[in-house]
Each structure stands twice: as C-alpha cells, then as structure tokens.
Amino acid sequence: MFKHILVPLDGSRMAEAALPAAAFLGEMLHARVTLMHVVEKNAPSAVHGQTHLISARDAAAYLDEIARQGFPREIGVDCHVHTAEVENVARSIVEHADELGHDLVVMCSHGRGQALHLFLGSIAQKVIAGDSRPVLITHPDVKGGPREFSCNNILVPLDGDPEHAQALPVAKELARACKASLHLAMVVPRFANLSGDMTVTGRMLPGTTSRMLDMARQDAEAYSAALVEELRDQGFAASAHVLRGDPAKIIVEAANRAPIDLIVLATHGKTGMEAFWAGSVTNKICSQSKVPLLLIPVT
Q1: CA–CA distance, 57 with 293 (Å, rounded to integer)
Q2: Dihedrals φ, ψ of 273, to 5°?
C-alpha cells in the first residue's frame, strides 16, 4: 500500500484542499508525507485569487507552517522546495519521483460545474500523463477551502475490462486499512446513450444492438456477482450494482446518492491521456463529482 504521499502546494487555499486526504491516509496507512513546492519561472503574482509563492524562502516557511498545523505529530512530514526556477512545474514533480520516492500524489481540482480547475488542468493532468504513480484528486468545500476526508465507503466502477480491473486490488488494500466497505458499479449504456462506433451500429442494426446491450447487462450481473462473492469470502463488506445509462452520469449520481467517500478508477495513463482529457468517462466523473477520485494508471 502507499507508503509515501506527495502533496504539491502553491500557497493557495485551493491547493490546501488536498491536505485532509493526505493527513488521513498518512495516519491510516502509516505513510510519510512530503509537502512540495516548485519555484516557477516567471510565476504569476497571484494564483486562485491569492498571493503566489514565488521565492524559495517564503515557500520553505509556508511548507513548515503547513506541516505543523495540518498534520498530527505521529505522521512523518517532510518539506521540499525545488529552488531552481522551472517553466514546467508538472515535469518537475514527475522528475522528483525517484529522488523523493513517493508512491501517491494528492492534488486538488476546482469542483463541479466548470471545466477542470486550472491547477488540475495545467499541473495534475500532466503529472498523470507523465508518471505511473496513482493520483488522488480532491475537491474544495463551497468556500474554496479544505473539505473533511474519510474513507468508509469506496466505489469501484468496472466494465469487465481486465485492465480497468487493476483499480480493484488498490481499492481492496485501502478498504482493509480503513475498514471500509467496497461497492462495485458496472454501467451498461442504454440504446440512447451509445457513443462512437456503437452509435453507427445502433442506427444500422437497432434490433441486434438492443440484444447485445441486454447480453452485456447479463454478463455484467454475472461478473459483478462473482466478484462480490469473492470479496465477501475474503472478509470484505461488499456490494455490486449493475446500472443502465450514460456511464459517467450514472456513476456520479450513484456516488452522490450513496455515502461514497472515494471513487477508485483505473485510467490508461500515458497512452490513454489524449482520450482521457478529450472528454472520457474519467474526465467527466472528475469534473462533475465532488467525491474524491483516486486514479490508478493502467500498467
């Protein structure tokens, strides 16, 4: 499980919304936490409407203060300021992976109703695309500050693809460490929700397509039932749900309707990022839901 958590900070309250998740997981997983600031070349004077950290000295003082105030003493917290000015902050974060040895990055995005927040779009997107380490994306509260983080119920969207099932082992480890329940969700589109090549097929062969969707639902029910039985045999509290409709919309609605604390989802990392940021299910979930999202790169 995760043993070293990296939290990139820029000095804004928005970025600090990642701190509750880092503190919670640091305590539950007995993991170290490193707070990091990268001095940006020609940095703007303000970020997210607040003064931007532009000097290494100010950044070091800021990180030390956050470490004292934001984490209990039993969590080991390191502070790292990359003092050499860089133009590409995300690349610098990725390049520090071997030096710092972290295995999870925790970052913040804006929240609902807009395109992804600038911090997520310009930094976290590139971190996910350029690295093979999981990234946990959190969201601020209504005032733009940190939101309380807990991990009692974990939602794992699956689609029967073995690559996407790589999220499940991580979710299991988290559930065991946090004594959380696991909820599996599989979404089979309805005829009206088809996209891509399936839209053309649906128009040309509506009857065949409808039967294929019915078969997909049956397969999903059998697949998820077998997984739940296996999870329960392993001692987990687990449930499974096969839903119909637009996958991203249904997953967001399910997470908001139930008391879900975390969504764990596999993504195709480097090779799939263009599709990811062009409007894939993962991107839509992140931009439409306020539930924290743990992205597991597919290997």
Answers
A1: 33
A2: -70, -30
Residue 209 belongs to domain spanning: 153-294
Confidence (pTM) = 0.85
- DSSP helix/strand/coil, 105: strand
CB 263, CB 295: distance < 8 Å: no
Q: Residues of the chain whose pLDDT is less than 70?
A: 43-52, 110-126, 128-131, 190-209, 268-280
Nearest to 124 by CA among 285, 12, 7: 7
174 shares a domain with 92 = no
Quick one: how far is CA 232 from the chain centroid?
A: 25
Last residue of a domain, one of 111, 138, 165: 138
Contact 263, 291 (CB under 8 A): yes
% residues pLDDT > 90 (the chain): 42
pLDDT recorded at residue 195: 59
Q: How far apart are CA 94 and CA 10, in angstroms?
A: 16
First to last CA, the chain: 16
Report pLDDT digits (tens) over 111-163. 444 434 433 444 666 676 666 789 998 988 877 778 899 999 999 999 888 88
> Which neighbouring-strand residues pair with 181?
153
User: Can you tell me the distance from the alpha carbon of 167 to that of 160, in angstroms, rounded to the nearest whole number?
Assistant: 12
Same domain, 176 and 290: yes
Angle at 212 between CA 288 and CA 183, to 5 degrees: 40
